[in-house]
Amino acid sequence: MIPAKYKNLILATAMFNLGFVIWFSFAPFTGEIADEFGLSVAQLGIVSSAAVIAVPLGRIVVGPLTDKYGAPVTAGGTMLLVGTFAIVSAFAQTYEVFTASRIVASLAGITFVIGIQHVSEWFEAEELGTAEGIFAGIGNAGAGLGAYFTLPRLFGEGYAGPLFSSNWRAAFFYTGVLAVAIGILYFVFGDAAKSAAKRAETKQGVSREQWLYIATRHGAVVLAVAYVMTFGLELAMNGWLGTYYREAFGQSDIVIAATFAATFSIAAGLLRPIGGYVSDLVAREEKNILPWFTGRYREQWTFATLVFVVCAMFGMTAAGLTGNIYVAVVAGFLVGTGCAFAEGAIFAQVPAMFPDNSGSVAGFVGGIGSSGGSIYPLIFAAPFLSNLHLGYAVVGLTMIPIVALSAWVFQPQIAERATENGWLIAENPAASNGNPDPTSDD
């Protein structure tokens, strides 16, 4: 019989993978959807943002709820809700109903936070980076292998099925049905934590005051904004690249354009475990890989990956300006690689820094980070830019202040107190109530 921790890891990963398939299932079909509802390229950028808009707040809310009620409850409820509205969107006859139902279906994106919390409840500190990386990496691949690669082949141009003649309607319907099934399975077979003691310890740390305290610590804030420029970027690219390759290079074939876009998503998803593994490795071996931040091993790796992402964004613009779509696809793959390594590094740090509040912190970091998925597509499709290639460099410029903030927080004298020192709120509510500090490793 499969050990319980691996069973729950499989459940979390399957939920997250399907969640990302649903979240980005509209992206390969933007051409057909635009034709049916009469949308411009700029409006498609708005649609890409709308598909993300509910997720930041949803993640912030579901994190503490998962700490309080356990992953089987929140995962089961989320997948039932998402599946229901994905099915509704398949039958939508107006743009307004379609957009509203897809916003609710986009809550599939909050499954990431649920899974992060669930995995952290089962794996020890020395395995966290790798386990979270496997969960997030395979789950994130749902955007590339699932949404971009598989769906256009199952529901390609000229699709005519038993229920729908529109390929995108069929895709939304059947993925919605799968979500309902996964939600039921998770509720029935999932286990909230490895022990009753661990479940009680996590549940005890949930309160509005404690959440506000944790969310304003230096460590939580810097990881959150770093996640904006990595996972937020991934969300934006997942929703935009199909349109970019089609509009900027005249690639009208839906399958080929989606396949090009999938190379980014596959890199961003499947390579993510490497980011978590390297973070575990340098921490375990106490290996300095940079001449700065001596003794802060996870921070060194995270900083290196953030710098790589910024450089890759400027490379994306340079590649696009060559006019060669294949050069642009390679550049997109490198951006995806940077996102994967950085995201794995960031979410190796989250449960390591906040072991008894992983759901709340994951919700905060994941929620704030998701906002990039709404902001960046508006820059990519901005009408004031002379071409569709320049948006990547503009986004790269916006990332430089985040890298600078990371460099400040990752200094050893600041990093060692990053879970205690912060902004706005000075007093720890847990300490004032006579409880042990939930951000402490002791």
From TrEMBL:
Entry similarity comment: Belongs to the major facilitator superfamily. Nitrate/nitrite porter (TC 2.A.1.8) family.
Protein name per Swiss-Prot or TrEMBL: MFS transporter
Localization: Membrane
Single biological process term from Gene Ontology: nitrate assimilation
A GO CC annotation given for this chain: membrane
Transmembrane segments: 9-29, 41-62, 69-91, 97-116, 128-151, 171-190, 211-233, 253-271, 301-319, 325-348, 360-384, 390-410
Highest taxon above the source species: Archaea
GO MF annotation terms: nitrate transmembrane transporter activity
Major facilitator superfamily (MFS) profile domain: residues covered: 7-415
Native organism: Haloterrigena gelatinilytica
Keyword Membrane found: yes
Record keywords: Membrane, Nitrate assimilation, Transmembrane, Transmembrane helix
Matching InterPro entries: MFS (IPR011701), MFS_dom (IPR020846), MFS_trans_sf (IPR036259), NO3_transporter (IPR044772)
Lipid bilayer topology: Multi-pass membrane protein
Gene3D superfamilies per the UniProt record, alphabetical: MFS general substrate transporter like domains
Database matches in Pfam families: MFS_1 (PF07690)
